[in-house]
Design a protein that fits this description.
It is globular and about 50 Å long. A hairpin with a 2-residue loop joins β10 (about 185-190) and β11 (about 195-200). The strands form three sheets. It has a six-stranded antiparallel sheet. The chain contains seven helices and 16 strands. By secondary structure, the protein is α+β, with helices and mostly antiparallel strands.
């Protein structure tokens, strides 16, 4: 089932116009959410990121778009989902209504919500040989627009194709200043001695919801200093650990970058604290 502007439809019934602005111009935003036992994890953070992003893109926010309303629309869809799963991956997309070319005829919006069952509930530690490489064909532009979850993800698509063709599990993206920005599907953290670094939003990384949760966890660990600072490619092979964060996987340790093998002790510890946060929420 799909929730299209509050109406529950089957996949066969749900249709998008070929003039949809999300398709024609990437004039759309989306939130990828994880639900567990009928609860949206980190919902408040997702909601306020969506509202802030809509304001930045000058979309008209409907009066009905309260956190309670959107939450009820998501949970209603899950109630009608033909699955016994306790956990779902949910995509909430908001797009400007069709009309116009680059200049829209209206700033009013529509939305749809989709859901897919997940095989696991809490976040699991992945100890596989997770290998990454730099993707250097194209670069992220530093700035506010790069921090938003818009439909313009062609760079991530091309990087994913490159990773698949070269048998990497992921790639790391650079910005035009040649600083490491993020992975294809999440934010990057680097551990060196007692310092944990992640790129700042000013470098163009996604304003990730899991990034925020992990930053809050790290700041409560007395043995580590947490900083938001640019990461150069030269720092990667000197690091003790690298890991990627997103709301679906939680924390994904990177095991291999070129000839460097990384440990996973810190990411395992943070993952345990993350799961504790999820259980208590």
């Amino acid at each position: 089932m799909i929730n299209s502007n509050g109406e529950l439809l089957t996949e066969q019934q749900a249709k998008l116009s070929i003039f949809n602005r999300g398709i024609a111009y990437g004039d759309a935003l989306f939130e990828t959410l994880k639900t567990l036992n009928g609860k949206i994890l980190f919902w408040e953070d997702h909601y306020f990121r969506l509202m802030a992003s809509m304001r930045i893109l000058r979309m008209e926010i409907p009066m009905s778009f309260t956190p309670e309303f959107l939450e009820s629309q998501i949970l209603e869809l899950l109630m009608h989902h033909n699955s016994n799963s306790n956990s779902f991956r949910v995509k909430l997309m908001v797009f400007r209504n069709q009309g116009g070319f680059y200049t829209p005829l209206t700033n009013d919006v529509s939305y749809f919500i989709t859901a897919e069952p997940l095989e696991v509930d809490l976040y699991l530690f992945d100890n596989s040989d997770y290998r990454v490489e730099l993707f250097k064909d194209f670069y992220v532009t530093p700035g506010l627009l790069s921090t938003l979850k818009t439909n313009n993800k062609v760079l991530n698509v091309l990087g994913s194709v490159y990773a698949k063709e070269n048998q990497y599990e992921n790639c790391l993206l650079l910005n035009t200043n040649k600083s490491i920005v993020e992975a294809l599907n999440g934010n990057l953290f680097l551990v060196k001695d007692n310092v944990i670094k992640t790129p700042p939003l000013e470098d163009g990384c996604l304003n990730g919801i899991m990034r925020k949760q992990v930053l809050e966890i790290i700041k409560k660990i007395p043995d580590f200093e947490c900083i938001e600072a640019s990461i150069s490619p030269f720092e990667l092979q000197k690091a003790d650990e690298l890991f990627v964060t997103n709301v679906i996987q939680g924390i994904q340790p990177i095991k291999v970058y070129r000839k460097k093998n990384f440990t996973t002790d810190v990411s395992q510890s943070i993952l345990a604290k993350l799961n504790m946060t999820v259980r208590l929420s």
